[in-house]
């Protein structure tokens, strides 16, 4: 990943709309990728659900200094005004899809090495007599990158507590990632059904998708 450049995930959704919406969504995907290329933005198609007419949904990853402005120019409801190209007698001429920004993809932290952990020692609490109070055997381990920390005082020696703290910290990081990944998936799924008709961000007209 490039340094100091935003990383943005966009989802194109037809909200399970008819085939005409899937045709429109396929055009929007191509148009968005083309704009990204012109602006020097790295664009990657992460997921795509397609059929013979077009796409039901797609997720794009954008990276670059202009990624934010590109994303904002597409986010919202998009409208295509056109008689159905596959159902000539269909009365409907307005087709809607949505482009949504997903929350940041959860970061997968690697198994922490001691260089990436800040250790602090302190006296163990609880019962145990004078020996417990005088010996700084308890250890607090903080993962520097995420700020996640654990405190261990169950073992008698500082060395044993430190070793256990690293193991527990790795477990806590994995749990944190799993929770964030689940939230990301739920948000991604929810966006599939949230296209609103009316007040479009951008409108395209006719079989050539000329923008108004």
List its traits:
212 residues, alpha+beta, 7-stranded mixed β-sheet, 3-stranded antiparallel β-sheet, 4 helices, 10 strands, 29% strand, Pep_chain_release_fac_I, Pep_chain_release_fac_I_sf, Peptide chain release factor H, translation release factor activity, PrfH
CA-based gyration radius: 26 Å
Structural class: alpha+beta
Total number of helices = 4
Largest sheet: 7 strands, mixed
Basic shape: elongated
Determine the N-to-C terminus distance. 36 Å
* Average pLDDT taken over every residue: 83
The share of residues in extended strands comes to: 25-35%
The strand line-up of the biggest sheet is 2-3-1-5-4-9-10
* Helix content class: 25-40%
> Unreliable runs, pLDDT <50, ≥5 residues?
128-133
What series of H and E elements makes up the topology?
EHEEHEEEHEEHEE
Q: How many extended strands?
A: 10
Write the layout of secondary structure elements.
Layout: E1 7-13, H1 19-38, E2 42-50, E3 55-63, H2 67-74, E4 76-81, E5 94-101, E6 117-122, H3 129-134, E7 138-143, E8 149-152, H4 158-191, E9 202-205, E10 210-211
Parallel strand pairs: 4-9
Antiparallel strand pairs: 1-3, 1-5, 2-3, 4-5, 6-7, 7-8, 9-10
Provide a concise account of the structure shown.
The protein has 4 helices and 10 strands. The protein is an alpha+beta fold. Belongs to the prokaryotic/mitochondrial release factor family.
Give a structural overview:
The two termini are 36 Å apart. The chain is of the alpha+beta class and 212 residues long. The protein is elongated and about 85 Å long. Helices cover 32% and strands 29% of the residues. It has helices at residues 19-38, 67-74, 129-134, 158-191; strands spanning 7-13, 42-50, 55-63, 76-81, 94-101, 117-122, 138-143, 149-152, 202-205, 210-211.
């Amino acid at each position: 990943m490039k340094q100091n450049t935003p990383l943005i995930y966009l989802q194109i959704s037809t909200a399970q709309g008819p085939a005409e919406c899937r045709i429109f969504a396929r055009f929007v995907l191509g148009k968005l990728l083309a704009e990204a290329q012109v602006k020097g933005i790295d664009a990657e198609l992460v997921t795509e659900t397609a059929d013979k007419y077009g796409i039901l949904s797609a997720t794009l990853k954008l990276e670059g200094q202009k990624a934010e402005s590109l994303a904002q120019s597409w986010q919202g409801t998009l409208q295509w005004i056109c008689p159905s190209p596959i159902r000539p007698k269909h009365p409907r001429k307005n087709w809607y899809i949505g482009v949504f920004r997903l929350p940041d993809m959860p970061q997968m932290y690697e198994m922490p090495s001691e260089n990436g952990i800040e250790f602090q020692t302190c006296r163990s609490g609880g019962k145990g007599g004078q020996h417990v109070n005088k010996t700084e055997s308890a250890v607090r381990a903080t993962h520097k990158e995420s700020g996640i920390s654990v405190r261990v005082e169950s073992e008698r020696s500082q060395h044993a507590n430190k070793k256990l703290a690293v193991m527990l910290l790795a477990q806590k990081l994995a749990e944190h990632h799993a929770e964030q990944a689940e939230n990301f998936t739920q948000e991604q799924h929810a966006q599939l059904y949230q296209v609103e008709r009316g007040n479009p961000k951008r409108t395209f007209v006719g079989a050539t998708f000329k923008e108004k």
